[in-house]
Write a structure and sequence with these properties.
Helices cover 78% and strands 0% of the residues. The chain has 277 residues and is mostly helical.
């Protein structure tokens, strides 16, 4: 799971601070915490459930048992139950770390709006946090909210410029049907980081969609100089050559791509190279 180790570290303060629970539960809590520390999540879950069933939560420490059980559910992949427990916990203890865990749970549930709600609050309390910005940008991209994603990506670029991030910025324009802006950014990435392969793939793919086959071939040629055996670029080269009526060379490229595992080349081979409709 993404950043699982980070959550473990983050959660440690919860597990340590729960030692003031009622005496009658101290033994069970100690056993459960020991199992949790050993990553025996199923065993810890069973004991935390027993504690919750025996005791009506009253104090913040009582509710922290719910947090721990939510963590066990999360670690075991039971995200719906994890969400139920963490929501109960946050109602009583609106802790920032618990909201971060809820965001991770909602990431697994692919609930974009719920993730954004917690990420917006986390960023309000931690302005400019690069991990949160990157996460929110990815959620905004998944939600097709590209203009908002651009703002977060640009903020990240101001903090930690990289060809990967700048290429993502180009993709936001691509998905907004602004090919000229996207190509301009991909060109900047290529100029500044000529060894970064994805920029050639993005630019070539966009050029093919725009039926700018000569331009696509130029990007493909540059990309193959970085990775001469890249199967996707060979496939793209085959398409561009066939569309430019260089069928023999195009079919050779697509045959290599198909043999290497690019299944999408099959239809092109049938239609352009084997004469099968």
């Amino acid at each position: 799971m993404k950043l699982f180790a980070f959550i473990v570290m983050m959660a440690f303060s919860f597990f340590v601070s729960a030692q003031s629970a009622p005496k009658k539960n101290e033994s069970l809590i100690l056993q459960a915490d020991t199992l949790l520390d050993r990553q025996d999540f199923a065993g810890a879950l069973a004991l935390y459930t027993k504690i919750i069933e025996k005791t009506k939560p009253v104090s913040a420490d009582d509710y922290r048992v719910l947090y721990k059980r939510a963590y066990c559910y999360y670690a075991l992949g039971d995200f719906e139950n994890a969400l139920g427990d963490i929501n109960q916990f946050i109602q009583q203890v609106p802790d920032e770390q618990a909201k971060l865990m809820r965001a991770y749970i909602n990431q697994e549930l692919e609930d974009y709006e719920a993730q954004l709600q917690d990420l917006n609050e986390l960023l309000a309390n931690n302005p400019g946090n690069p991990e949160f910005l990157r996460w929110r940008a990815s959620v905004l991209m998944e939600s097709e909210r590209y203009a908002e994603a651009q703002k977060d990506i640009q903020a990240l670029l101001d903090y930690q410029p990289s060809p990967e991030l700048k290429s993502y910025l180009g993709l936001t324009y691509y998905y907004q049907n602004k090919p000229d802006s996207a190509i301009a950014i991909f060109d900047e990435v290529i100029e500044g980081s000529p060894g970064y392969l994805p920029s050639y793939l993005y630019a070539a793919s966009l050029s093919l969609e725009q039926e700018a086959f000569d331009l696509a071939l130029a990007y493909i040629s540059q990309g193959l100089s970085v990775d001469r055996d890249n199967l996707t670029l060979l496939f793209y080269k085959g398409i561009a050559l066939v569309e430019n009526e260089n069928t023999d060379e195009g079919c050779k490229c697509m045959t290599k791509a198909f043999a290497g595992g690019i299944d999408d080349a099959a239809d092109y081979l049938k239609n352009y190279c084997y004469g099968v409709d």
